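User: Fold both of these, please.

Assistant: Here is the first one.
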Amino acid sequence: MRFAAPEHRADGTLGTARYEITGTSRDGWEVRRDDRPHLTLGPGYRLLRSRFCGICATDLARHRLPFPLPQVTGHEVVAETDDGMLVGVEINASHAARELPRAEWCETCRRGLGTHCEDRLVLGIHALPGGFSPWILAPAGALVPLPRDLDPVVGTLLEPFAAAWHAVRTVEPRAGDRVAVLGPGRLGTLVTAALAAYRRRSGLTFTILAIARDPAHATLARAVGADEVRAVASAMGDAPSADVVIDTTGAPSGLETALALARREVHLKSTSGEPACGLRHVTELVVDELRIVPAGAPEAKEKDALRVGSVAALDAAIRPDPRVARAALPPRGTIVVDVRDAAGSPLLAAIVERGVRISTSRCGDLREALPILHELATTRDVARLIAAVLPPERFAEAYAAAHRAGAGKIVVRQPA
């Protein structure tokens, strides 16, 4: 296949390049860019036509993430198979997702953590050309057929909703909790909807609070299940004001605000790729789904838990200097903060003095999330999250619209 596709460049600008894909799922693939070798892939990928792809905060901040550029971005994909079936796509190309022989799997895949596969590529984020291209190479075992009665534009919400559902399952709200969603924009609205769905399914009684700057976000948050909506300044007036705060702002200031508001737990769901609260590796913290707990927490007793005594040591634990001989933390590992003096650090003060833990999450299970999204598409008007659907020739306009504060989800529709 030969085609032109929009790219995200290292300086944050957009460009266009010519791509050529040759190969087979059995033998592997070669990807050429502007007539030069670009990417060689082994077996286990299927060539699919991209039909719809949503723009998310990760796409907008792609130049700040620790992966090479340029790249065709886009991972909230609805694609079409050879026989015309529309599918959602799990984005992590692990050994398991590629359906390779089990003998070729890494230990992480064998443990059921394919999203942390040691050799994974990630559609539209790390190496694999993404859904803003007319064609994608998707892991052969990662295709999730969509119901015929689900609008494929709404289907682009499947990947981010699966991530939102994973966040809620990681937090596991308790009866009587007050759970706040900080920054209910594109992802935060889906987290709010996931909390409401979890409450219905679990039978637990807890309060969902949306903390929003934008009136449009507040309206959507109420529509998908928030019990209360407050402005940031109002919420900070009686901080801490929630048992759990899920930070979906994707802004460096979000973590510090969440730490001030939370009584028990801060859950980081998105990052900007920029430092926050003295940590340089906040993005990597989320990518590896690590958690940070005070010394008295039950998780502090885990045999693989790593103890640190400063913000610098915490940062080094997330991404150790390769020159230092220390084993990296396993995916979803635990870092224990054990320090007596937390003065001058909002991060350490929240953890040490108030016992706040920090949890994180990334991609979710599309198959688990699909029936819940399907239910929401009929019982809650999640389609209101879609602000516009634009053709690929208006891609720059679509990106600009997604950048604007208050914008809903912008979807790029490829021609049939």
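And the second sequence with its predicted structure:
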Amino acid sequence: MSRFEQLQKLVAQSPDDPMTHYVLGLEFANQERWDEAIAAYDRALEVDCNYIAAYYHKARAEIRGGWRESAVGTLRAGQVAARAVGDEKTWAEMQDLAETIA
């Protein structure tokens, strides 16, 4: 069974675990399958809107897929969520990424 198949199996077994969706998104991004990566990150955020890393990686996928305006919105939402949970490191990483878009 491939790594991708294993991840899909984990997602099926634990659909309410944001980490499984997030890791699946990373795998899609590694394969440059931007739409699917974004959908996986969206699902992670549906399950847990405070899964901060998903915002950052979703924005990166949006940038690479050519959706810069969407990435800006994702980063703004992610920064709000990061501040709410006190994750200043990820907030700053999102700020740095946002500045590369401008």
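The chain has one domain: 3-101.
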